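Hi R.,

Here's the chain you asked about this morning:
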Amino acid sequence: MASYSAPLRDMRFVLNELAGLANVAKLPGYTDATPELVDTVLDAAGKFAADVSAPLNASGDREGAKFKDGVVTTPKGFKEAYLRFVADGWNALAIPAEHGGQGLPQLVSTPVQEMWQAANMSFALCSLLTQGAVEALILCGSPELKKRFLPKMISGDWTGTMNLSEPQAGSDLAAVRCRALREGDHYRLSGQKIFITYGEHDWTENIIHLLLARTPDAPEGVKGISMFLVPKFLVNADGTPGRRNDVQCASIEHKLGIHACPTAVLSYGEKEGAIGYLIGEENRGLEYMFIMMNLARFDVGVQGLGIADRAWQQACAYAKERVQSADISERRGQPVTIIHHPDVRRMLMSMKARVEAMRAVAYVTAAVLDRAMRHPDEQQRAQAQALVDLMIPVVKGWCTESAIDITSLGIQVHGGMGYIEETGAAQFFRDARISTIYEGTTGIQAKDLIGRKIARDKGMTAKALIGMMRATEKELANAKDEMLKAIHMRLKAGIDALEEAVDWLVGHYAGDVKAAAAGSVPFLMLVGVVSGGWQMARAALLAQKSLDAGNGEAAFYQAKLVTARFYADHELTRASAFKESIVSGAVGVLALSEDQF
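And here is the predicted structure, written out as tokens:
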């Protein structure tokens, strides 16, 4: 199995040239994000990912998390790696400094998150969920709850979870039945939660669960959901863990992938009732949940990017060393490494181009998120937030769906050896498969995209995005280089297709919502593919300027141009097909009766 090496050169190119790190570092609160500091952070994260986390990936997959008598044991080396992770300060990278974190921009934490997910997705999931819980507590928790729980969650001494799903309530949170009864300054909770990532483990002395439940007099549906903080161990006045709370791990799931990550079934209140504390106000739990969910959805999109890059790295290394068959242009030639075969090259280029496009879209979205959080002008913040809201379901849905394709291609590049577990290629595919499901399936992301993000504002934010794309397309129109001319033609067609699809959705959503919904996932993929093409086109323009100026690194910039051209020819050409599925495909989706299936 090839070792993991963080793609630092490409990360820095995207951070600095496409996402505009220098501008983000000018925002209030981010001025410490100097080029020197960011380089140090990226180098150190890359070293940790390669030396500590990645070596545990395959062994953790083979060993898996173990459950016995309510106790969960994680694979060998995982606890020690986590203790080093928090000792090195990685858990608090993007947490605001006023709460004890390092306060670095989302744009800086995003490539670090990519490294964690690429190196060892199972290991990285725990801190990912803790960060979401911390964010919700910072924004919605009472001063007393923040004082009692935040410091140790931010330091990593305690971890956090999100408890949403129940056996009868997966994505439909209106069906949540977990109950919360008021008792003085706290509540007694009872019920069962499923699919709880790191809901039980052996890394820390306490686990802080954030869960959704109903009070007895709550309204029906999602309007009656409240959010509660329920610690595994109650906390004494001095901040130390006290007696065990009435929450138990009933089992852990046996899964297709992420075997080293314990996915728990948690039972609350089997005895006297689990003690929990209300976060914010009653019946506003869904609103608070989305604070955690939006950050987690973005990070899961980055997770798709990371695991796709890991699969690409391994496939590329294998193709350079696996000898099989003669070059097609030489009838009696000697066997060559498979990277010489055109179809293997096509697969590798597909993996490479899509990974680079995903990285660019994710990082640029992270920069917009930073502007939404920190820009001093209120109108600029609002515009940035609207664009973030539009792009988060795309980053989550498009990047994770692409990751499944890319990791599958990685197996294909390996041929029969890819189907054998020892090579490691299959693990990337198995691990990636969950990413399109948790934190909201691709269909849920797409429904959110066309409803809340397109129809609600009549496509205004999408049109603003298209306007930015048109500016790049016009810059390409004046190019003399043949590569750039070809990219321009494809990008223009892609933007045209996207604009037609937006107009169609705006015009038809209110009158025929089912027809609009039938094309929602193709629309999400269309936005992703064209956004990726836009960023690849920007990269190509920058690469050509560097080549023309003779700034050095010619091989890097030439590869950028060729990769952008490949993306234009092989990915952007899919845009018109997605558009046709959106505007004409509803009949085939909806026509059959239930009995005809």
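One quick note: The chain is about 55% helix and 15% strand.

Cheers,
M.
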